[in-house]
């Protein structure tokens, strides 16, 4: 598991990754994209975490689908965003 170096005991954080696979942006159902990223994570052994796509559809926008509630780090442990506003 990724453990960023600048965290203290008890800190919460979120992770973000870029999939090496792609899909077309044709579905209007956000669950399609969430399933896509969940499957990509599972293929790398990280399926035990619930993942959400940073994606929007006519019925759901990325800010509510991939809700940022704390600091976000990439898979190298690098800080991507401090909070929702940065994201």
Report on the architecture of this protein.
With 87 residues, the protein is an alpha+beta fold. The chain has a domain at 25-81. Helix content is 21%, strand content 10%. Strand 2 (71-73) and strand 3 (79-81) form a beta hairpin.
Write the layout of secondary structure elements.
Layout: E1 13-15, H1 30-43, H2 62-65, E2 71-73, E3 79-81
Parallel strand pairs: 1-2
Antiparallel strand pairs: 2-3
Strand content of the residues, in percent?
5-15%
Shape: globular
First-last Cα distance: 22 Å
| Percentage of residues assigned to helices | 10-25%
Number of strands: 3
Low-confidence stretches: none
Summarize the main sheet: 3 strands, mixed
Biggest sheet: strands side by side, in what order? Answer: 1-2-3
Rg over CA atoms, rounded to whole Å, is: 13 Å
Number of helices: 2
Instruction: Kindly name the structural category.
Output: alpha+beta
- Overall average residue pLDDT: 92
Can you summarize this structure?
The protein is built from two helices and three strands. With 87 residues, the protein is of the alpha+beta class. The longest helix has 14 residues, at 30-43.
Structural key phrases:
alpha+beta; 87 residues; 2 helices; three-stranded mixed sheet
């Amino acid at each position: 598991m990724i453990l960023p170096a600048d965290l203290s005991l008890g800190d919460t954080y979120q992770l973000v990754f870029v999939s090496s696979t792609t899909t077309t942006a044709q579905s209007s159902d956000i669950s399609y994209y969430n399933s896509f990223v969940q499957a990509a994570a599972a293929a790398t052994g990280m399926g035990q975490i619930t993942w959400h796509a940073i994606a929007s559809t006519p019925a759901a926008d990325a800010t509510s689908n991939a809700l940022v509630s704390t600091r976000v780090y990439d898979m190298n442990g690098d800080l991507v965003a401090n909070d929702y506003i940065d994201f």
